[in-house]
Amino acid sequence: MSPSAPASDASSTSPGGSAFADLAAFVALPRLGGLALSADGSRLAVSVQTLDPEGKKWQSALWEVDPAGNRPARRLTRSAPGESSPVWSPDGSLLFTSARPEPGAKEQTEPKAGLWSLPGDGGEARLVLTRPGGISGVAVATGTGEVVVAAATMPGGSDARADEQRRTRRTDAGVSAILHETYPVRYWDHDLGPASPHLFWAGRLPVDEPATGADPVELRDLTPDAVPPSGADGSFTLSPDGRLLARVEEVPDGPAARRDRVVLMDTADGSTRPLVDDPSADVFAPAFSPDGSALVCVRQAMSTYAEPPDHTLLLVEVADGAVRELTEGFDRWPSAPQFSADGTAVYFLADDDGRHAVFRVPVDGGPPLRLTGDGAYSDLQVARDGSALYALRSAYDSPPVPVRLDPETPLQDPPALPAPGTLDRLPGTLHEVAATASDGTRVQSWLVLPEGASVETPAPLVLWVHGGPLMSWNSWSWRWCPWVLAARGYAVLLPNPALSQGFGQDFVRRGWGEWGGAPYTDLMAAVDAVEQRPDIDASRTAAMGGSFGGYMANWIATQTDRFRAIVTHASLWDLDSFTGTTDLAYYWQQEWGDPLREPKRYEQNSPHRYADAIRTPMLVIHGDRDFRVPVGEALRLWYDLQKRGVPSRFLYFPDENHWVLTPGNSQIWYATVLAFLAEHVLGEAWQRPELL
Ligand SMILES: CSCC[C@H](NC=O)C(=O)N[C@@H](C)C(=O)N[C@@H](CO)C(=O)O
């Protein structure tokens, strides 16, 4: 694999190698996300997360990166609450959301994000819009600069004062209850309701500071009827002339289920019509063509008991809603489509053989062309003069860095543009390996080898199973970072077993509704293959995983005693209770069926049914605020392990959710995992992390 490009901005360069051995330094490494290219292609903004001065949370600031790669990056914004969602206006100003206080304003107890504007020619950012529930998203018409914002709004009206009063009355009365009448009621880490996201037309924002006492920007509610759980979500976009708004709308799909469709609204009068409304599919991620006459979006055929979902791209004519498939026969799942500058092609991203690549498909027909080689790409930006694409690129040997791509050249491996967060060194090497499953199928994996692994000093091995399961190991992860383990001498195996994305639909089918089957045996085949290597110590191994990976860690515990330790994070233990209590039950019951009517798959694949077989010491980890995999899974697993006398520990986070979102808890997460592995895999004495 290619080493990370050296950073040219010394002040923001991180001493990569050593940071992985020191957890405090690891959480202090800059983390890049969210890229935005200005309309004229001359300015590129990126969001950079760093530790706050007290080291208690990550805060994001916006930085400017030179698209030509000559100048060092420079910081654009600075505030304690941080800034996010950058988007350029055609007048050159940069819009972003931030909960920073307005200069001179009274301190708020629970500050909400407002919309801010940073003038293109320099100067101070100023607050342009607020709402009682905060601003959660913004879209700009690329031709006119007109703006639509998303803002959580209480039921009963969209007038800001009335909204504020309803919130105040609930607070004053000590009421936090929510009355639900539809499904779902929660999403990942937050409750749905009583407020729901509405979209507001803000028009052209004033360029200059308004005179004192002048009216603030007047907002017009485009979605006054939005109610939880449906209504505007994060996915909405304006046509270049600002006359049309395409948005994803959730609609009922039978009892206790929802699906996504794309609707088109006339922003002048709010009249709305469904654009793609397919009862057998979710349709989302709409993007306008440069002339506004067409849209591209993703169609995800809904999964059934027999068939996994499948994705394709649709080209939709605005005038009559005529739909044409753009990626027919392409055996990968396209996402995040964008038109080329001249509208003759569509760029998209897709998992492909352990990479997350950029593709280009001609609108007039023809197969997609893969534009990138190694690595995983996100945040694709298309320069409107057609000269370049920009994206964030990461891989297992590089955290996300901004890159510039040629719009047509296949299989590029671009160098990083100067930006904070590039690493100078990693504590080991990355290798791509393959194994052969029992049915002859190739199973691709990434293998991280620690410095010094050799025939003389073979490394202990940790199998790390990815989540999803319809995903793959292909990109850098701060949450699941193998280099922290490599810095302590472990080799880490990151396999892509059956159900993983990027290996074709048949590869997904092999594991559909049979998680304990091919996905498990593929993982064991991958472990068997690397254990043959002379630089791996097959007698000192562990397995770990989070979410679906946690399911698999639990399943492994019930099926084999080959590992010395198992770490299971945010894991599924009893599939029957999981599929009924997770935030979006209908998604999972499409695959598993109703447990009362169709118990077979649950009986065959639920780890809790095989609890008596567990001999391997287990570390259970869970966050109480996890609504995707509710904490009941961990509570029952923990009870089942303790009852059976299985050596085990439980790292419980009372205020974390499916993720671990604070630097302190992230360090404790890694410290506890490392201590548990050291005890069982290396045979060292248990060392309880000091703060626990
Ligand atoms: C209700 S949509 C399911 C989305 C996703 N599954 C995709 O294949 C999912 O949330 N699965 C979780 C059980 C999971 O494994 N999450 C992973 C990936 O998001 C994680 O790393 O947390």
From TrEMBL:
<dbReference type="InterPro" id="IPR011042">
    <property type="entry name" value="6-blade_b-propeller_TolB-like"/>
</dbReference>
<dbReference type="InterPro" id="IPR029058">
    <property type="entry name" value="AB_hydrolase_fold"/>
</dbReference>
<feature type="domain" description="Peptidase S9 prolyl oligopeptidase catalytic">
    <location>
        <begin position="476"/>
        <end position="681"/>
    </location>
</feature>
<dbReference type="Pfam" id="PF00326">
    <property type="entry name" value="Peptidase_S9"/>
</dbReference>
<keyword id="KW-0732">Signal</keyword>
<comment type="function">
    <text>This enzyme catalyzes the hydrolysis of the N-terminal peptide bond of an N-acetylated peptide to generate an N-acetylated amino acid and a peptide with a free N-terminus. It preferentially cleaves off Ac-Ala, Ac-Met and Ac-Ser. Also, involved in the degradation of oxidized and glycated proteins.</text>
</comment>
<dbReference type="InterPro" id="IPR002471">
    <property type="entry name" value="Pept_S9_AS"/>
</dbReference>
<dbReference type="InterPro" id="IPR011659">
    <property type="entry name" value="WD40"/>
</dbReference>
<keyword id="KW-0645">Protease</keyword>
<feature type="region of interest" description="Disordered">
    <location>
        <begin position="69"/>
        <end position="118"/>
    </location>
</feature>
<keyword id="KW-0007">Acetylation</keyword>
<dbReference type="Pfam" id="PF07676">
    <property type="entry name" value="PD40"/>
</dbReference>
<keyword id="KW-0378">Hydrolase</keyword>
<keyword id="KW-0720">Serine protease</keyword>
<protein>
    <recommendedName>
        <fullName>Acyl-peptide hydrolase</fullName>
    </recommendedName>
</protein>
<dbReference type="InterPro" id="IPR001375">
    <property type="entry name" value="Peptidase_S9_cat"/>
</dbReference>
